[in-house]
Amino acid sequence: MTHMESYELLFRGASVGLLLFLAIRFAMMGLRGAVDRAGFLCCVVAAFHALGAHEAPSLGPQWLDATFYYLGNFFGFAFWLLALALFSDRARLCVLTVIPFAVIAVTGFFPELYFICQIVTVGLMLHIMVLALQDFDGDLVQFRRSFRVVLATLVPIFVITSIAGEVLVDGYAPAFQIIEWVKYFGSSLLFSLWLTRMERGLLSTPDAETAPRPRDVPVADRLDLDKLNDAVASGACFEPGLTIGALAHQLDMPEHRLRRLINRGLGYRNFAAFVNDHRIEEAKRRLADPGQAREQIIAHAFALGYNSLAPFNRAFRERTGQSPTAWRTAQLDQGHVPAE
Asked: What is the per-residue pLDDT across 218-274, written as a single tens digit (0 to 9) for each?
């Protein structure tokens, strides 16, 4: 065994060990939330990817290497699922989610179609970058905001350097493979360090029907929290295009402090969810009021700060399971009397 092969085996074994440790760590968390389930899957598939790399020395029978290689093709897909679960609090699996899985599953059996699998994987990595940067300003969890930046930076670097190595130089050259394994080990190590610092609350995906869970805030923050609640009660959330920066300006409060108040004091992880919850609660009150029964739905949407009917309908359905029209009809048929 040459020195290059020894180094490669060292980094490869260390990467697999770290990934299996992370998978066990996710499993010990109970696999109850979307993030811990996706994280467990991602770590296991990444380990298969490391074990089944074509350029790596054989680990046993040919059928075993082929199995590891085939399962490892799903690493990009598993990582994409983890990003969806981490950055989209209300993400749900749908038909579109299955499409990349099906493409990878089919093309994985045909070596001549492997380039299709690579194209799909690159597309998923680009979408991860979009997810990481999307709604960055509205994310109220500071640690998750930091991870968005790291992810949006590392993903393009890893993808571009890997593709460039395969296209521009001999992808199987020993020096290139050492660099790839160092990158693989480094990313596994960084992810394991991130996981040890991550708050447990990040590993649960809140259900649309579950109310936010506020935590105790220091005495020094209670006056600011009261100030925030007063502003919300006076209709601050109904301003069209409201951003957390604009609300912080209204309250004459540093933006980072407002983020912490909404996150820790009110239990929200996303500013859009905070705003929509208050808007929809007011919408429910208005729609249940017989005195406003003739008011058009779109008029309520505009009055509550929405720029069009579609986002209002979507937010309303997420929280009630019904369209605004159906909900109003049901409430008025029951003779509902709105609270003062």
From this structure: 777 788 888 999 999 999 999 999 999 999 999 999 998 899 889 888 888 889 999
**Structure-block tokens of residue 66:** 């082929």
Tell me the CATH number at 190.
1.20.1070
Q: Helices 3-28 and 34-51 meet at what angle, rounded to 10? A: 160
Token digits for 305?
A: 């700060």
For the chain, how big is the Rg over CA atoms in Å?
A: 25
Q: Report how far residue 210's alpha carbon sits from residue 150's, in angstroms, rounded to the nearest whole number.
A: 30
Asked if 54 and 70 count as a contact pair (C-beta separation under 8 A), the reply is no
User: Do residues 90 and 46 touch, judged by C-beta distance below 8 A?
Assistant: no
Contact 104, 128 (CB under 8 A): no
Which of helix, strand or coil describes residue 16?
helix
11-53 pLDDT tens trace: 778 888 888 888 888 888 777 777 788 889 988 998 888 787 6
Give me the domain span that covers residue 232. 222-333
137 and 260 share one domain: no
